[in-house]
Amino acid sequence: MIGPLLRVAASSVAARSLRTAAQDATTSALLSLGAAVAMGVGSIFLSFSAYTFLESHLDPAGASAIVGLFWLLAGGGYFAVTRRRRT
Fold this sequence. Notes:
Blueprint: H1 2-57, H2 60-86
């Protein structure tokens, strides 16, 4: 008589913990997606504002080269750090 009641209680506790874990995973994934979108939009606006500022002091080709060099160094640094961590 007590065995089936304990099984029902245990299954409800297990289902609650699974729901909580699923909600935590969903929240974490959505926060990561939001952060990635914010970083992408921020980098686009940062690039445009830097280009506009540099263009007012230099010619358009020089401003574009400086902004491109910045992103080249940022990307190269990222790949250097991740490669060192993987090996």
